[in-house]
Specification:
2 domains, alpha/beta, globular, binds iron/sulfur cluster, about 15% strand
Protein backbone atom coordinates (compact mmCIF):
# COMPACT_ATOMS: atom_id res chain seq x y z
CA UNK A 1 0.00 0.00 0.00
CA UNK A 2 1.37 3.35 -0.96
CA UNK A 3 1.58 6.56 0.91
CA UNK A 4 0.34 9.86 -0.46
CA UNK A 5 2.13 12.85 0.99
CA UNK A 6 1.17 16.49 0.62
CA UNK A 7 -0.13 17.25 -2.80
CA UNK A 8 -0.49 20.62 -4.42
CA UNK A 9 0.70 21.39 -7.83
CA UNK A 10 1.26 24.83 -9.18
CA UNK A 11 1.33 24.63 -12.95
CA UNK A 12 2.09 28.31 -13.39
CA UNK A 13 5.26 28.40 -11.35
CA UNK A 14 6.03 24.93 -10.04
CA UNK A 15 7.80 24.85 -6.75
CA UNK A 16 7.62 28.52 -6.01
CA UNK A 17 4.43 28.46 -4.01
CA UNK A 18 1.95 25.96 -2.75
CA UNK A 19 -1.51 26.42 -4.13
CA UNK A 20 -3.82 26.14 -7.03
CA UNK A 21 -3.43 28.60 -9.87
CA UNK A 22 -4.83 27.01 -12.97
CA UNK A 23 -8.58 27.12 -13.33
CA UNK A 24 -8.72 24.94 -16.47
CA UNK A 25 -6.98 21.96 -15.00
CA UNK A 26 -7.40 21.79 -11.31
CA UNK A 27 -5.52 19.08 -9.50
CA UNK A 28 -5.36 15.36 -8.91
CA UNK A 29 -7.27 14.80 -5.70
CA UNK A 30 -5.42 13.25 -2.84
CA UNK A 31 -7.93 10.39 -2.77
CA UNK A 32 -6.92 9.54 -6.31
CA UNK A 33 -3.25 9.23 -5.54
CA UNK A 34 -4.14 7.15 -2.50
CA UNK A 35 -6.35 4.86 -4.53
CA UNK A 36 -3.57 4.45 -7.09
CA UNK A 37 -1.25 3.46 -4.27
CA UNK A 38 1.20 6.18 -5.15
CA UNK A 39 3.83 7.91 -3.13
CA UNK A 40 4.03 11.56 -3.94
CA UNK A 41 6.67 14.00 -2.89
CA UNK A 42 5.43 17.59 -2.98
CA UNK A 43 7.40 20.32 -4.78
CA UNK A 44 8.64 22.19 -1.74
CA UNK A 45 11.82 23.22 -3.50
CA UNK A 46 12.15 24.40 -7.03
CA UNK A 47 12.75 21.38 -9.27
CA UNK A 48 12.93 18.93 -6.38
CA UNK A 49 9.61 17.28 -7.10
CA UNK A 50 9.46 13.58 -7.87
CA UNK A 51 6.63 11.11 -8.24
CA UNK A 52 7.24 7.60 -6.99
CA UNK A 53 5.25 4.39 -6.86
CA UNK A 54 2.70 3.39 -9.50
CA UNK A 55 0.74 6.65 -9.52
CA UNK A 56 2.40 8.37 -12.47
CA UNK A 57 2.39 7.86 -16.22
CA UNK A 58 5.52 6.39 -17.78
CA UNK A 59 7.25 7.90 -20.81
CA UNK A 60 10.38 6.74 -22.58
CA UNK A 61 13.13 8.19 -24.79
CA UNK A 62 13.43 7.20 -28.47
CA UNK A 63 14.91 3.83 -29.37
CA UNK A 64 18.59 3.87 -30.28
CA UNK A 65 18.10 3.61 -34.03
CA UNK A 66 15.72 6.56 -34.14
CA UNK A 67 17.79 8.52 -31.67
CA UNK A 68 20.85 8.32 -33.88
CA UNK A 69 19.27 9.20 -37.21
CA UNK A 70 16.98 11.90 -35.87
CA UNK A 71 19.59 13.49 -33.60
CA UNK A 72 21.51 14.50 -36.73
CA UNK A 73 18.53 16.71 -37.59
CA UNK A 74 18.16 18.03 -34.06
CA UNK A 75 15.08 15.90 -33.43
CA UNK A 76 14.25 14.05 -30.22
CA UNK A 77 11.12 11.96 -29.64
CA UNK A 78 9.43 11.35 -26.33
CA UNK A 79 7.34 8.17 -26.36
CA UNK A 80 4.25 7.03 -24.54
CA UNK A 81 2.97 3.45 -24.68
CA UNK A 82 0.04 1.28 -23.71
CA UNK A 83 -0.16 -2.53 -23.63
CA UNK A 84 -0.02 -4.11 -27.10
CA UNK A 85 -3.23 -5.92 -27.99
CA UNK A 86 -5.09 -4.95 -24.84
CA UNK A 87 -5.23 -1.32 -25.94
CA UNK A 88 -5.69 -1.99 -29.67
CA UNK A 89 -9.41 -2.37 -30.41
CA UNK A 90 -8.92 -1.77 -34.14
CA UNK A 91 -6.06 -4.25 -34.63
CA UNK A 92 -6.59 -7.33 -36.77
CA UNK A 93 -3.72 -8.70 -38.88
CA UNK A 94 -1.17 -7.57 -36.29
CA UNK A 95 -3.13 -8.33 -33.12
CA UNK A 96 -1.06 -9.95 -30.39
CA UNK A 97 -0.53 -9.51 -26.69
CA UNK A 98 1.62 -10.72 -23.82
CA UNK A 99 -0.53 -13.15 -21.83
CA UNK A 100 0.32 -14.69 -18.46
CA UNK A 101 -0.78 -18.31 -17.92
CA UNK A 102 -1.86 -19.88 -14.61
CA UNK A 103 1.77 -20.74 -13.80
CA UNK A 104 2.85 -17.16 -14.24
CA UNK A 105 4.58 -17.81 -17.56
CA UNK A 106 4.31 -14.97 -20.03
CA UNK A 107 3.69 -15.95 -23.63
CA UNK A 108 2.77 -14.30 -26.91
CA UNK A 109 -0.88 -14.72 -27.76
CA UNK A 110 -1.78 -14.00 -31.39
CA UNK A 111 -5.15 -13.24 -32.95
CA UNK A 112 -6.76 -15.66 -35.40
CA UNK A 113 -6.10 -13.33 -38.34
CA UNK A 114 -2.53 -12.51 -37.32
CA UNK A 115 -0.31 -12.06 -40.39
CA UNK A 116 2.65 -10.16 -39.03
CA UNK A 117 4.55 -9.88 -35.83
CA UNK A 118 3.61 -7.24 -33.30
CA UNK A 119 7.05 -6.24 -32.03
CA UNK A 120 5.51 -4.34 -29.15
CA UNK A 121 3.81 -7.49 -27.82
CA UNK A 122 7.04 -9.45 -28.28
CA UNK A 123 8.87 -6.79 -26.31
CA UNK A 124 6.37 -7.12 -23.47
CA UNK A 125 6.94 -10.87 -23.35
CA UNK A 126 10.69 -10.39 -23.18
CA UNK A 127 10.87 -7.41 -20.81
CA UNK A 128 8.76 -7.41 -17.67
CA UNK A 129 9.56 -3.76 -16.91
CA UNK A 130 8.20 -2.69 -20.27
CA UNK A 131 5.11 -4.84 -19.76
CA UNK A 132 4.50 -3.43 -16.30
CA UNK A 133 5.03 0.20 -17.36
CA UNK A 134 2.51 -0.09 -20.20
CA UNK A 135 -0.03 -1.95 -18.06
CA UNK A 136 0.39 0.69 -15.37
CA UNK A 137 -0.30 3.48 -17.88
CA UNK A 138 -3.53 1.85 -19.01
CA UNK A 139 -4.71 1.06 -15.49
CA UNK A 140 -4.23 4.69 -14.49
CA UNK A 141 -6.01 6.08 -17.55
CA UNK A 142 -8.92 3.63 -17.10
CA UNK A 143 -9.61 5.05 -13.64
CA UNK A 144 -9.43 8.78 -14.45
CA UNK A 145 -11.58 11.43 -16.09
CA UNK A 146 -10.28 13.40 -19.08
CA UNK A 147 -9.13 16.37 -16.98
CA UNK A 148 -7.51 14.09 -14.41
CA UNK A 149 -5.60 12.28 -17.17
CA UNK A 150 -4.39 15.61 -18.53
CA UNK A 151 -3.31 16.79 -15.10
CA UNK A 152 -1.54 13.60 -14.18
CA UNK A 153 0.24 13.44 -17.54
CA UNK A 154 1.57 16.98 -17.16
CA UNK A 155 2.49 16.34 -13.57
CA UNK A 156 4.30 13.10 -14.47
CA UNK A 157 6.26 14.85 -17.20
CA UNK A 158 7.13 17.81 -15.00
CA UNK A 159 8.15 15.65 -12.05
CA UNK A 160 9.89 12.70 -13.64
CA UNK A 161 10.78 13.51 -17.24
CA UNK A 162 11.70 17.16 -17.11
CA UNK A 163 15.04 16.80 -18.88
CA UNK A 164 13.61 14.55 -21.63
CA UNK A 165 10.73 16.96 -22.14
CA UNK A 166 13.16 19.83 -22.45
CA UNK A 167 15.08 18.01 -25.18
CA UNK A 168 12.02 16.78 -27.05
CA UNK A 169 10.44 18.36 -30.08
CA UNK A 170 8.26 15.36 -30.95
CA UNK A 171 5.81 13.28 -28.93
CA UNK A 172 4.84 9.87 -30.23
CA UNK A 173 1.65 8.57 -28.71
CA UNK A 174 1.79 4.79 -28.62
CA UNK A 175 4.93 3.04 -29.70
CA UNK A 176 2.64 0.28 -28.49
CA UNK A 177 -1.13 0.36 -28.10
CA UNK A 178 -3.64 2.72 -29.68
CA UNK A 179 -6.40 5.20 -28.90
CA UNK A 180 -8.62 2.65 -27.24
CA UNK A 181 -11.48 4.90 -26.11
CA UNK A 182 -12.86 8.42 -26.75
CA UNK A 183 -11.77 9.58 -23.30
CA UNK A 184 -8.14 8.89 -24.07
CA UNK A 185 -8.34 10.55 -27.51
CA UNK A 186 -9.87 13.66 -25.91
CA UNK A 187 -7.16 13.78 -23.25
CA UNK A 188 -4.40 13.53 -25.86
CA UNK A 189 -6.00 16.30 -27.92
CA UNK A 190 -5.94 18.58 -24.87
CA UNK A 191 -2.35 17.55 -24.17
CA UNK A 192 -1.32 18.59 -27.69
CA UNK A 193 -2.43 22.10 -26.77
CA UNK A 194 -0.86 22.01 -23.31
CA UNK A 195 2.38 20.79 -24.88
CA UNK A 196 2.14 23.01 -27.91
CA UNK A 197 5.93 23.26 -28.26
CA UNK A 198 5.89 19.65 -29.53
CA UNK A 199 4.67 18.08 -32.75
CA UNK A 200 2.52 15.14 -31.66
CA UNK A 201 1.99 12.11 -33.82
CA UNK A 202 0.35 8.70 -33.66
CA UNK A 203 -0.65 5.69 -35.70
CA UNK A 204 -4.10 4.26 -35.32
CA UNK A 205 -6.24 1.39 -36.49
CA UNK A 206 -9.19 2.60 -34.44
CA UNK A 207 -10.56 4.75 -37.25
CA UNK A 208 -14.09 5.38 -35.91
CA UNK A 209 -12.58 7.56 -33.18
CA UNK A 210 -11.21 9.97 -35.79
CA UNK A 211 -13.88 10.17 -38.46
CA UNK A 212 -15.25 13.73 -38.77
CA UNK A 213 -13.21 14.84 -35.75
CA UNK A 214 -11.25 18.07 -35.93
CA UNK A 215 -7.66 17.34 -35.02
CA UNK A 216 -5.34 19.83 -33.32
CA UNK A 217 -3.00 21.52 -35.79
CA UNK A 218 0.13 20.07 -34.13
CA UNK A 219 -1.21 16.50 -34.14
CA UNK A 220 -0.40 14.19 -37.07
CA UNK A 221 -2.33 11.00 -37.47
CA UNK A 222 -1.43 8.03 -39.64
CA UNK A 223 -3.97 5.29 -40.17
CA UNK A 224 -2.46 1.83 -40.59
CA UNK A 225 -3.81 -0.78 -42.95
CA UNK A 226 -4.40 -4.25 -41.55
CA UNK A 227 -7.03 -3.38 -38.99
CA UNK A 228 -10.71 -4.07 -38.38
CA UNK A 229 -11.72 -0.76 -39.96
CA UNK A 230 -9.76 -0.88 -43.23
CA UNK A 231 -12.99 -0.32 -45.17
CA UNK A 232 -13.13 3.22 -43.72
CA UNK A 233 -9.73 4.20 -45.14
CA UNK A 234 -9.95 6.76 -47.93
CA UNK A 235 -7.74 9.64 -49.04
CA UNK A 236 -10.15 12.37 -48.07
CA UNK A 237 -10.74 11.39 -44.44
CA UNK A 238 -7.37 9.77 -43.80
CA UNK A 239 -4.76 11.02 -46.28
CA UNK A 240 -1.80 9.79 -44.22
CA UNK A 241 -1.82 6.00 -44.45
CA UNK A 242 0.79 3.36 -43.63
CA UNK A 243 0.95 -0.06 -45.25
CA UNK A 244 3.25 -2.83 -44.05
CA UNK A 245 5.10 -4.36 -47.02
CA UNK A 246 7.52 -7.28 -47.29
CA UNK A 247 10.40 -5.34 -48.84
CA UNK A 248 11.50 -2.32 -50.89
CA UNK A 249 10.43 -4.05 -54.13
CA UNK A 250 6.86 -4.30 -52.91
CA UNK A 251 6.90 -0.64 -51.82
CA UNK A 252 8.18 0.33 -55.27
CA UNK A 253 5.48 -1.72 -56.99
CA UNK A 254 2.87 0.09 -54.90
CA UNK A 255 4.63 3.43 -55.62
CA UNK A 256 4.91 4.14 -51.91
CA UNK A 257 7.85 5.92 -50.25
CA UNK A 258 9.34 3.91 -47.40
CA UNK A 259 9.45 5.40 -43.90
CA UNK A 260 12.45 4.24 -41.91
CA UNK A 261 12.41 6.52 -38.87
CA UNK A 262 8.90 7.98 -38.53
CA UNK A 263 9.79 11.03 -40.67
CA UNK A 264 6.75 10.44 -42.89
CA UNK A 265 4.53 9.93 -39.84
CA UNK A 266 5.47 13.17 -38.13
CA UNK A 267 6.45 15.24 -41.18
CA UNK A 268 4.24 17.96 -42.65
CA UNK A 269 3.12 16.11 -45.80
CA UNK A 270 -0.07 14.08 -45.61
CA UNK A 271 0.62 11.11 -47.88
CA UNK A 272 0.44 7.31 -47.96
CA UNK A 273 3.70 5.47 -47.23
CA UNK A 274 5.10 1.99 -46.61
CA UNK A 275 6.72 0.36 -43.62
CA UNK A 276 9.02 -2.59 -44.23
CA UNK A 277 8.14 -5.67 -42.17
CA UNK A 278 11.45 -6.72 -40.60
S1 LIG B 1 -1.91 -2.02 -33.23
FE1 LIG B 1 0.30 -1.96 -32.92
S2 LIG B 1 0.63 -2.49 -30.77
FE2 LIG B 1 -1.48 -3.03 -31.28
S3 LIG B 1 -1.38 -5.20 -31.79
FE3 LIG B 1 -1.17 -4.06 -33.72
S4 LIG B 1 1.06 -3.77 -34.04
FE4 LIG B 1 0.72 -4.40 -31.88
Amino acid sequence: MGLALVYWYDRVSPGTSIGLHNPTHTYIPLRLLKSLGGIFIAPFFNGAMKLLGPAYLRFSPPNLKFKKTLAQQGLFILNFSLPAGRACPGADKCWAMAATDENGKVELKKGVDNEYVCYAARGEVAYSNTRRARANNKAIIDGLSVSEIVDLTLLSLEANYKSLLKKANLMRWHVSGDFYCPKWRDAVFILTQELSQLTHYAYTKNLPLFLDIKKPSNFRLTVSWGGRFDSMINEKDFPRQAKVVADHDEAERLKLPVDVNDQLAFGPIEQPFALINH
